Amino acid sequence: MTDYNYAYLDEQTKRMIRRALLKGIAIPGYQVPFASREMPMPYGWGTGGIQVSASVLMPSDTLKVIDQGADDTTNAVSIRKFFEQTAQVKTTEATTKATVIQTRHRIPEQPLSEGQILVYQVPIPEPLRFLEPRETETRKMHSLEEYGLMHVKLYEDIAQHGHIATAYDYPVRVEGRYVMDPSPIPKFDNPKLSMAAIQLFGAGREQRIYALPPYTEVISLDFDDHPFEASKADHCCDLCGASTSYLDEVIIDDDGGRMFVCSDTDYCQTRRAQGHVGRLGVPQEKVLASGAKP
Amino acid sequence: MYVAVKGGEKAIENAHAWLAEERRGAPEVAELTVAQIREQMALAVDRVMAEGSLYDPDLAALAIKQARGDLIEAIFLIRAYRTTLPRFGHSTPVDTGAMAVDRRVSATFKDVPGGQVLGPTFDYTHRLLDFKLAADGEVPEAPKAPAAEGDVPHITEFLNKEGLIQTEPPGNDETPPDLTREPLELPADRTLRMQALVRADEGFTLGMAYSTQRGYGRNHAFVGELRIGTVAVEVDIPELGFAVEIGEVRLTECETVNQFLGSGSTPPQFTRGYGLIFGMCERKAISVALVERALRSKELGEERTGSPAQDEEFVLYHCDNIQATGFLEHIKLPHYVDFQSESELVRRLREEFVAAQEAETAANDPDQPMPVPETAGE
């Protein structure tokens, strides 16, 4: 891929994106419009996150790409390959070894540290979008800090269902100012949004970038009498036995039998390598001995 | 023993190999060349150039071949290529009055200076399948006539001489914004709206335009003039101090004469809509003119009825087929994390609902023993 610039985007475009990123970092939670480019993969496949990654990657970086928490989902594989070819970066599946992690729909279980960058792919950056479809209106609402509509929506959920009926894409308030969409991560991940790493959010189709600097206060919206609760399936991982990780439900037979496994594949693999075994798991030595790929 | 599913990489490779084989089709059938597509699927090529925002018939033909004839996919290939090209500058406005016209019709005047030229149109063909085409390799030949001399004046200008049609505000010297280099921000001015409509999906634009004809933001359009032909593209070279012709492009231009306006202070006047598209894209050019005109309703002080075609935000945010198809199709990507969180919530709400109902039944029927609550699902 020598016909293209380093990390695919031309330097002027990267500069434009970096400016948007700096502005986003300076105003946490504020959606910065940017001139999103047409990428060689479709909108909806993470073009925002890819443009952000392309703008921050350096040859010395180590990149990890996850989709639904897993390194081996097809689109994660495809994006990782794209950057291996265009940016010649090292790639890894180990959360601790990555300097840049691009993610769709999850925050890794392993807490991130200073010096790491987490890049989110964002479909709809506007937390107020489904309350008010017009961008001209929602931008006004943000500038006036007019978030009453959101609170009414959450209240109506409680009145109707007894709970806030949002399980992912759960809105947060950043440093007491902007209401922000954390991208469609499960609300289980929301408490991790205050972290040591830099978090960058890219929405390609909607042409918006926003960011959370390290240690930013990020509060999930709630009410005193209905406090926010980070929920997950009430099980342990059937492979590694973890009781505190977010779980995927896998249907294993025709009778609706199922198992629960960590959605974060690196976390699960690391635990199994350490000797943890879940209900349906097999100790690592046996797996390796039998020749099956772990 | 359960082993987590791996092998995304292999699956992708195999999918690509299969796709390549399918694209080629049966190997005993001769392969289609790019030149054949460019020459014999010319209207598909034109659509790909128009919505891909790149005037290059060979690349458009290649994209159509690679996309197996899926034009939106071909447009996507062209867009993704175009975005990597440097932008050197912009041309001077093309002079469509000096167009070498292949086709020029007016629906508002029976005859006009410069004459009407039907050109290579489907308009009066009878749509009967021509089975001969399936068999022979005949090279049809059309009778020839000498090209008309001189410029072809715009018909709307004749109306303008009488003041019968609204005069456009003069353009300023500012470089128009580039939709492909700056984020779309609203309100958009006319140049930006036109750019968006020109690369908008043909079907979407057609539907929007049709809706205005059926009363959703009606603006009584007549096709004042529709012309298709070749124009010279000139670029100002600062070192030379004058413009130099760098090539020719084929364009379709549509000017509509729309419903008149007038008030106590201004005499009644017709208004205009405008569409200018790469290649031969007549349906698209007329559609753009109608939608463009509908989007001017605010500027022209018309009564706005909340019709979609008059709603700039609605039209501009939804007209791009690459954005639309990407977001629409992305829902086939894995969403199991979101789905898992949602299904947990629904299970919990259902459990509470069942428990509440049972409690109510028990309370209303004191003779019945307290039922054992069923656990919903797992």
Secondary-structure blueprint of this entry?
The complex is a heterodimer of chains A (294) and B (378).
Chain A: H1 11-26, E1 32-33, H2 47-56, E2 62-67, H3 74-87, E3 90-91, E4 100-104, E5 117-121, H4 135-143, H5 148-161, E6 172-174, E7 178-180, E8 198-203, E9 208-212, E10 218-220, E11 247-251, E12 258-262, H6 265-273, H7 284-290
Parallel strand pairs in A: 2-3, 2-4, 4-5, 5-8
Antiparallel strand pairs in A: 1-9, 6-7, 6-10, 8-9, 11-12
Helix pairs in contact in A: 1-2
Chain B: H1 8-24, H2 34-40, H3 42-52, H4 57-66, H5 71-82, E1 100-105, H6 131-135, H7 155-161, H8 190-198, H9 202-213, E2 222-237, E3 242-261, E4 269-278, H10 282-294, H11 312-318, H12 321-329, H13 336-364
Antiparallel strand pairs in B: 1-2, 2-3, 3-4
Weakly predicted, low-confidence segments of chain A: none
| Strand adjacency order, main sheet of chain A | 1-9-8-5-4-2-3
Q: Over the alpha carbons, how many angstroms does the gyration radius of chain B reach?
A: 28 Å
Going by helix content, strand content and strand pairing, the class of chain B is: alpha+beta
Please count the beta strands of chain A (DSSP E, at least 2 residues each). Answer: 12
Number of distinct helices of chain A: 7
Percent of sequence in beta strands of chain A:
15-25%
The largest inter-chain interface, given as chain pair and residues per side, is: A-B, 72 and 53 residues
Overall mean pLDDT of chain A: 93
Most strands sheet of chain A: 7 strands, mixed
Please list the strands of the largest sheet of chain B in the order they lie side by side: 1-2-3-4
Structural class estimated from helices and strands of chain A: alpha/beta
Average pLDDT of chain B, rounded to a whole number, is 89
Euclidean distance between termini CA atoms of chain A: 32 Å
